[in-house]
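Running this now, will post back.
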Amino acid sequence: MSSLPTRIVGGILVPDTPLITKALDYARAHLSDMAYNHVVRSWLFGFAIASKVPSFADRDLEVHSIAAILHDMGWDSTGRLVSSDKRFEVDGANVAREFLIKEGVSEEWEKHRLQLVWDAIALHTTPSIASHKEDEVQMITYGILTDFGGPDVSFEKLLTWEEWEGVVKEYPRLGLKDGVKDILCGLCRSKPETTYDNFVAGYGEKYVEGYSLEGKKQVDAIEAMTLP
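Update: finished.
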């Protein structure tokens, strides 16, 4: 695996660098047990899948790792990393970039690598765009989608159930579906304006009393234009 040191986590071979360890510690300090296990599983599933696709072999393994591990920092359970006016994906992308500027070696983390991490996190809930981006961006999304849907929805169905079960045994799901619903409904209550143009709005409409998209959809803004 490139020239980076490696280790086995949940039966999956992953890179093992001091910066990745710091990212894991950072995520652990700011995420609930459910969310932390989710980001680690997403990291592991992405690496398991990528190991079977030769075209992904040359991706930046540290970018992939850190973006996967920090992709949901916008769910920070302490609240200190959560903005009042940005989508949770943007919060996560900004937090990851700030983490790398502070903790990374500046000569190693130039603008392009920082942007890859930012893009991978900001786009991870938009697979219709992420799947056309760089390998690192794609693999973050593929790993996350696999964690939600299982091996049968993994990229080209490359993840085996044996690999899935090995990871989940070490990092249990802890009620992922309901936990995510609680977090997203919370965002609909605390900063609804960040949800109107994206998938989170569906949770607001279905589960949050008083939440409404009336007049808030993009079509409403376009149709309200005074120009022909």
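The beta strands are 6-9, 12-15. More later if anyone needs it.
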